[in-house]
Structures are given as C-alpha cells and as structure tokens.
Amino acid sequence: MRLPLLVGCCLACWTGERAGGQGRGGMLGPFEKPSLVNPVIAPSRTSQFRSPMNDSIVYWEAFATFNPAAVVRDGKVSVLYRAEDATGEMKIGHHTSRIGLAESADGLRFTRRSAPVLYPDNDAQASFEWPGGVEDPRIVEAEDSTYVLTYTQWNRDVPRLAIATSRDLIHWDKHGPAFARMIDGKYRNLESKSGAILSRVDGNRVIATRLDGKYWMYFNVPDILIATSDNLADWTPLEDTNGKLVKVLSPRPGYFDSWLVEAGPPALMTEHGILVLYNAGNSERYGDPRLPHRIYTGGQALYDPRNPVKLLARSDEPFIRPTEAYERTGQYVEGTTFVEGLVPFNGRWYLYYGTADSRVSVAVWDPHTTR
Length: 371
Prior knowledge:
Elements: E1 14-16, E2 49-51, E3 56-58, E4 64-73, E5 76-84, E6 97-104, E7 111-112, H1 126-129, E8 133-141, E9 147-154, E10 159-166, E11 173-177, E12 196-197, E13 199-202, E14 205-208, E15 215-219, E16 224-229, E17 235-237, E18 247-249, E19 260-263, E20 268-269, E21 274-281, E22 296-304, E23 307-315, E24 338-345, E25 348-355, E26 359-365
Antiparallel strand pairs: 1-23, 2-3, 4-5, 5-6, 6-7, 8-9, 9-10, 10-11, 12-15, 13-14, 15-16, 16-17, 16-18, 19-21, 20-21, 21-22, 22-23, 24-25, 25-26
C-alpha cells in the first residue's frame, strides 16, 4: 500500500532546505482532535502493581499517563504509554515511570491492562532503570512480526536509549542500552532518548525497513542525531570524519523549534522522501514570539529517500500545538503536544501524543476528506 499523502492545504507549510524547496506535498495532516474522547487515557488511582524492586504495592499510574507509542495488532490499536506513580519528589523526572498497555477497537476509546507490561525489575537492566523507571516508548514491527520498542532507561543519573522486543506486547525481552555494544562501548553512557526507527507502511502495519542494507534510527534532543543497525537491537551513532556525532536536525532561531528538536514517532518512507515528525520546544529569547516560552509543539521534516542524513525541507509552522485546556493542565503548564505514536488504521491516520506530561490524547487525519 502506498502511503496516503496530503497534496492540498496543510496547517503548516514547508521551508525549503535547498533551492526551490519541496512545496507542500508530503506533509501529513491536518489532524483534528476529537473533543468527545480526549484525553483518551488519564491517570488512575485504582491500578495496583507489586513492584519487584522493593516488594511493595504501588499505584503505578496514579500521578500521570502520557507519551504514548502505538501499533495496530489483530485489528485493534494498541497504545503503550508512560505512567508515573506518585512516589518521589513532586518534580518532573522524579517519579518512577512504567509502561502500560491499552487497546481500542476504534482508535478512540481504550481499555487498559491493570498492570504495567514494562517496568524496572530485578534483572540485568536494573542499574539503568531504577529508580526513575522506563519512559517514552516508540514502536515498530520487524519483518517477522516481532515488535521492537525503543524507550528511555532513567536511573536519575544518565538517560539511555534502550531496546526491548516482544511477540505479544505483554511479555518483553530487554536488550539494554542501544549503543552499549558498538564502537567498543564508546557511547554506552551517552545521554540519549527518543528513538524513531525508519519504517515503511504496509496496510495498517508500520514495519522497520532497511536502506542500503541497514536499519536507520533518528534519535535524541536538543538536536536530532542518526544511527544505524544490522539487527534492530545494537545501534551505532553516525559520526563525521572528525569523530563527532552527525546532527540531522537542529533548532532554528526565530521559529517554533528554536529551543530544541526531538525525534517523534517512527520515521516513514514515503513517495516524497523520508518523513520525520518531531517535537519542538520554543525559546523565550530566540524563538517565535507568538508562542509561549518552552511550549512543545510538533513539526515535520523531509529527508532524501536515498540519503537519510540529507534534509530536504521542514515545516515553518507547527502542525500540532496546545490549543485545549487538557494540553496545558498538569505537570507541564507551558503546554505540550508531544507526539510519539502514529498509525494508519482503517483508512485514517491516528496520532497519539502526551499532553502537559499528564495525559494521552489523539488527533486524527482522514486523507480522503482533505482537499
């Protein structure tokens, strides 16, 4: 199936990064936020779980539920979301995060499991995942239908991008930090997060795809970097001739993405190029004066389909931004529409995102109604 693409008017337009730019073709949207269902996942004060780290009962999603990944499985949308308990200091990043699983037949109304599916355990990853937990997942399928999850391990010292795999979304094998085994462990302790693996679309499936014999992953913040892999578990960050990490997208003074850029959902191979949706922070000093300081919005960037490093164009306005009260109410009052989950589902595109570091919401685009 060829990826449906917008060819008419968008909420934002491209800024060309080469002579002539790319025009407006290739951007997803406009997305609409269904008012009757949002937010689709909110904190629950009743969900209990016995933590293996201290053998105690915790209300694992009592404080916040946000920053979701999404995949279509067995005709339903499954969302893996970050959930925080109410332990620790009342500061962002000082609670313990676990990953929960919710399922929906229509992509809008969800039933969640009572216990998390990925969490700090007495295993080989404990020193990387405790006490901060596991955060901010993205998910793709492999060719053999294995699910590959990128997530952040947070021990409240160094955030590390990590990999886990599953056949059923419930039982997970942790493979550890994504960069630990490559280049003699040079990047084992690299502060890293937000892994968006290059994929292709096949019906409702988003499948990791090779380019020039390798898998590719856009990752990190405040600049987006890029890495390659032979097996989807062990990744090597791309370096330039001086041994420095290659930046493929950076903040821009005067724009909505002036403070930081951060990889969003899995990157998509399209007929126009490689499409990367990214999260963007606005700088008070150097940013767009029309937007609040430190607000998180969403942008889109297009890369050469033959060269994932070569930026062709990027949006000059956010395609999604906080406009609703639930997007500015919670831990992060400046407001966030933090995009991490994107799936094609029954002819529409469903974008799942975190709001104010507190809830999960959805925005929907039907390409058949776009003129």
